Amino acid sequence: MIKSMTGFGKSVCELPAKRITIEIKSLNSKQLDINTRIPNLYREKELSMRNIISQTLQRGKVDVTFYVESMIPDKIPQVNEEVISAYHNQLKSVADKLNIGDSTDYLRIIMPLPDTMKTMPAELEEEEWKAVSSSLSEAFEQLDNFRIQEGNSMQTDVRERCGNIATLLEQITPFETQRTEKIKNRIKENLSDFSNNGADDNRFEQELIYYLEKLDISEEKVRLKNHINYFYETMEEDGPVGKKLGFITQEMGREINTLGSKANDSDIQHIVVKMKDDLEKIKEQILNIL
């Protein structure tokens, strides 16, 4: 079954104090390229997220983005009691030495000083991550469904174009008989130009056989037909088949090019041009197949 590398998935995770929107999109790429934009709170889970992505999506340029709407900030400022106590002890000691009364407002003096407030990062609770992970799986499922739908459309198009090439291949057969007669007549005319007494029949047959063997395209036709059948079989395989289909189209291209170079006939060459056009469109589609 063919899947596209292009897809989009979205899910929303509702938590008591925050709302997290998860978006995942993927584009075509030769390898798996993962880019994540997630809050620091979930960074400790990034490795497990990447493992899930690599197992689920396998290929493509993947962007994972978290949008967080929270009523409580991830980093909450707290009073640094140890630092304030140390400042207070020092200031009180200086005040005692200078005989300053106890009416001094030490807190007003201390709080603007450095490090009196500390910011503690919020810790990720396991229950919260379970909810987020569930939403993440939902987004992956949506993206995978998108890929399947896109893949079905691509498979229909690619199968149709492969069928076009197979049909064009059959259209070559009638022109092969005509081509043989054309070659035979051309050789006879060329020989007659160089000999006023007519051509030797044995020599003529030898030359004709040589050119027909040199220009014979039966093997290329058989191989191309086999490649087309193998292409159909590969499309029905489970798992990623994009790279494999790409290799098969390369072999199809070689046979079509050889058909064109050995054709020596304008009608066959016109058919070959149409084959190349369909093959190029197949290659364009395969670039986006998983």
UniProtKB/TrEMBL annotation:
Pfam families: YicC-like_C (PF08340), YicC-like_N (PF03755). One of its GO terms (molecular function) is RNA endonuclease activity. It comes from the Bacteria. Coiled coil: none annotated. Keywords: Endonuclease, Hydrolase, Nuclease. Residues 2-155 form the Endoribonuclease YicC-like N-terminal domain. InterPro entries: YicC-like_C, YicC-like_N, YicC/YloC-like. Its cofactor is a divalent metal cation. Belongs to the YicC/YloC family. This is Uncharacterized protein (TIGR00255 family). It comes from Marinilabilia salmonicolor.
